[in-house]
Amino acid sequence: xxxxxxxxxxxxxxxxxxxxxxxxxxxxxxxxxxxxxxxxxxxxxxxxxxxxxxxxxxxxxxxxxxxxxxxxxxxxxxxxxxxxxxxxxxxxxxxxxxxxxxxxxxxxxxxxxxxxxxxxxxxxxxxxxxxxxxxxxxxxxxxxxxxxxxxxxxxxxxxxxxxxxxxxxxxxxxxxxxxxxxxxxxxxxxxxxxxxxxxxxxxxxxxxxxxxxxxxxxxxxxxxxxxxxxxxxxxxxxxxxxxxxxxxxxxxxxxxxxxxxxxxxxxxxxxxxxxxxxxxxxxxxxxxxxxxxxxxxxxxxxxxxxxxxxxxxxxxxxxxxxxxxxxxxxxxxxxxxxxxxxxxxxxxxxxxxxxxxxxxxxxxxxxxxxxxxxxxxxxxxxxxxxxxxxxxxxxxxxxxxxxxxxxxxxxxxxxxxxxxxxxxxxxxxxxxxxxxxxxxxxxxxxxxxxxxxxxxxxxxxxxxxxxxxxxx
Length: 472
What we know:
Helix content: 25-40%
CATH class of the largest domain: Alpha Beta
Radius of gyration: 23 Å
CATH topology of the largest domain: FAD/NAD(P)-binding domain
Strand content: 15-25%
Number of helices: 17
Shape: globular
Largest sheet: 7 strands, mixed
Number of strands: 19
Number of domains: 3
């Protein structure tokens, strides 16, 4: 159990007081919502079904090996910088090693680095003449349809098949473990669609945004802008610090091992009953659990709302962590990681190089790899047994990274329902969910199944939700 999870409060057999808000789920969204409410002076309790807080922000230590079960890094943006300042965490933030700035993509069985300077782009093998043809014609491509276009159709129309196959497909695998043929351009990549809408061109729009950003006063120190970071003890430190800050407030409570089994209306508010029989009453009920969990709890109250939530797809992903002696890997691992496009005919989605990103992830003289398998396009791969996953990872990566020896340490982390997919129709589904919620005053639904899957998005969305509820 995390430190914050151990700082539970006493639980009585019945609900004895009415809270301003009850938050179900102590992942990034739930913690940020509760922290925002607590800071505003509202009484709030956070209930988490598992034994520790953080959701997919979970760090595991095994001797000198340190792995993340979920994300390995977070990107610094002004809202996150402000949150770290509130939590007195800025001094602990650990920027990624500058040597990790390269991004590799497999091309014909070889890892090729994306160009990190504009003047290097013309000779980059990943682009090729067909990609350059697409880029050169992009400013002259007409705006697309107003319907919910797939990401694949959007990219193919504006940039061509080569960019889709070699750049966007692996990027989508890395962010969503998704399928660009299914993902909605508007939902999954709204900034790209907005550039086309506002400027008629991604390139013209990107340049306009870049010049406008230079004229804006900095919202945080320039050296932190866009920086990838973690903490020496891993990203779980961020979740634990949020938990510590919440329970330090006299108006806030946090409890782990509290699985909610039933919710019901109670006058002008809501009551939630956990598996121990403890009842928690609040004017506002905030559910930040995965969509299918919320669907199960809401089924007896609103079958249509439950059906909408249950339709959101979460494909399985397995994370295979492999530790090697440095002498057993020929590639210098001088980058963030390597993505494998589907066109390469390999089953691995990608691999990160955590021991390059940050010190303290592997013993001296060793490398750590995090390999991702499964996802929307090949869910069956994630469901193989551990030995098959290890074999698949080594089969796909040995030649690409010149792996000569066997791993000296290994671990499998399974996410049977990993990243929610923002597929075509997703925005219409969200609109229908919001409409259905109008019939349930005081009920709020949030999480990474809407408005961004990244940790920073979830934290910012939780903060805004807390501020909204505090005004009610």
